[in-house]
Amino acid sequence: MASQQSERRNRKAEVIRCFAELVAERGYDNVSLRDVAEQLDMSKGTILHHFRSKDRLLERVHADYMERRLAEAHALLERLESAPEQLAGLIYQLMRAEHDDRSATVAFAREIMRFASEEVMADVRRMRDEYSELLRGVVQRGMDDGQFVQADAAIVTLQIFGMCNWSWTWYRPKGAWSTEEIAGTFTHVILHGLGRDAPLELSAEVVETVRVTMAEHRPPPIATR
After folding, report:
1. Which of 29, 57, 99, 111 is least surrounded by CB atoms within 10 angstroms?
2. What's the pLDDT tens digit per position in 148-160?
3. pLDDT at residue number 144
4. At residue 88, what are phi and psi to the nearest 5 degrees?
5. Which alpha helices (H) appear in the chain, and where do they start and end?
6. What's this model's pTM, rounded to 2 decimal places?
7. Within a 13 Å sphere around the CA of 181, how many CA atoms are in the beta-carbon half?
């Protein structure tokens, strides 16, 4: 029984991973459940048994993605103390996901608006709001503590998301810039703009904390059949 449950979990994980890769590469409209079935050498009926429909499979990709990012973000905020460190950590986390969790990140970023108001995405919207509130809270605490200049924390939060979440359109894992270089530049520009006593760099401590935290929340590898 335990082995059967493990096999079912592995099959579902395989489907989610494969669908995310295909959506990241082609876009949602250009991927069918038959494509996934052929890639994994399984029947379309097996996929429908697990997920019921294509939009619910996309919801699972998005939900799994947000669950990972939220778990990492909560852990980072516990491990990094000051608002500038926390803000640098979240910026680096978002960029690091472009490298370490690329297919799910690109699938999430390019298709998140497709069902933004649909009921099937209710849990995903809730998690997006929770993550947004975490980031906005860091920005607001920095302003309240006098480490950041006063501004509208909600607009600064949207600025950071726009800067990081659309980088999938030009970032390449084997491109000219590493995630550390990109996140370092982003951090410098944001913290310089927020000013006051904020350090103007992505420190080695923040980089290592983010790497360790994200490694701890990485899904286990899928067992080969």
Report:
1. 29
2. 999 999 999 999 9
3. 96
4. -60, -40
5. 2-26, 33-40, 44-51, 54-79, 83-100, 102-111, 122-144, 153-165, 179-194, 204-216
6. 0.89
7. 8
Residue pLDDT, tens place only, 106-139: 999 998 887 677 888 999 999 999 999 999 999 9
Amino acid at 169: T
Structure tokens at 70: 């939220």
Q: Side-chain half-sphere of 100: how many Cα atoms within 13 Å?
A: 21
Domains of the chain, residue spans: 55-216
Are 199 and 89 in contact by the 8 Å Cβ rule? The answer is no
Q: What angle do CA 52, 56, 59 make, to 5 degrees?
A: 160
- CATH no. of 55-216: 1.10.357.10
Number of Cβ within a 10 Å radius of residue 83? 22
Residue 199's pLDDT is 62
